[in-house]
């Protein structure tokens, strides 16, 4: 049975979240498409918030 790839926007959010938790700058967003970039930045913000509140460590 084939596994389906996640939706592109979900993947952009997840990558942004990983970047935020990892402490990367939001200027390092790899997306130029507005929708994907917005999702990446949303994930990045949540990742940074989680890192700041102590939910995640590097």
In short:
With 58 residues, the chain is mainly α. The protein is 57% helix and 0% strand.
Give the secondary structure arrangement, pairings included.
Elements: H1 8-21, H2 34-52
Helix pairs in contact: 1-2
Main location: cytoplasm
Family: Belongs to the ribosome modulation factor family.
GO cellular component, one term: cytoplasm
Please provide a written account of the structure:
- The structure is a single chain.
- This protein is 57% helix and 0% strand.
- The protein has a domain of 26 residues.
- The longest helix has 19 residues.
- It is mainly alpha-helical and 58 residues long.
- It is globular, with a radius of gyration of 12 Å.
Low-pLDDT residue intervals, each spanning 5 or more residues: none
Rg, Cα atoms, Å: 12 Å
In angstroms, what separates the terminal alpha carbons?
Answer: 36 Å
Tell how many strands the DSSP assignment holds: 0
Helical amount among residues, as a percent range? 55-70%
The gross shape turns out to be globular
Q: What structural class do you assign from the helix and strand content?
A: mainly alpha
Estimate the mean pLDDT confidence: 89
Which key phrases capture this entry?
58 residues; mainly alpha; 2 helices; cytoplasm; Ribosome modulation factor
